[in-house]
Amino acid sequence: MYNVFISYAHSDSDEAQRLVESLRAQNVTGFLDRADIVAGDVISSDVRSALKQSTAVIVLLSPRALHSQWVQFEIGAAEALGKKIVPVIVSGEHLEEQLPDILRDRMWIDARGRSDAEVIRDVEHALGSST
Fold it and tell me: Which CA distances in Å does 8 have to 16, 90, 96, 117, 131?
């Protein structure tokens, strides 16, 4: 079983929620901040803890995500922890040309215009190739 951390811009929360629901249906657990952090918790502490416990980090990429300080923090923390990072482009034209250096040399999944089932299949394949 995989335990994944979902990194995303809050304006992409619908896509993130759909991804988590689809992953859970495939017995993959996922950390989603809005669902897994409760009022009164220290957000950065909960995020660090979830990143440490995760098998991999799925980064939902959109123009908004590229400008999100939290997404950048989560990508950097995942890299520092040696986690497998699975970039998934959910929106934005030519976004692959704008990826930050840390993601530029990684294979990514293009979710734009594809069904959730196809994207989940690709995510599962990427998780299955974790070493």
Answer: 7, 10, 16, 19, 24
Length of the chain: 131
User: b/e string for 74-83 if b means 16 or more Cβ within 10 A?
Assistant: bbebbeeeeb
- The residue to which tokens 């502490």 are assigned: 45
Backbone angles phi, psi at 77, to 5 degrees: -65, -40
Asked if residues 84 and 66 have their Cβ atoms less than 8 Å apart, the reply is no
Nearest to 35 by CA among 16, 54, 49, 51: 16
pLDDT confidence bin for 129, thresholds 50/70/90: low
φ and ψ at residue 89, rounded to 5 degrees: -85, 115
Choose the most confident range, by mean pLDDT, from 1-15, 36-50, 70-84: 70-84
Output the pLDDT for position 61.
Answer: 94
Instruction: Kindly report whether the global pTM for this prediction surpasses the value 0.70.
Output: yes
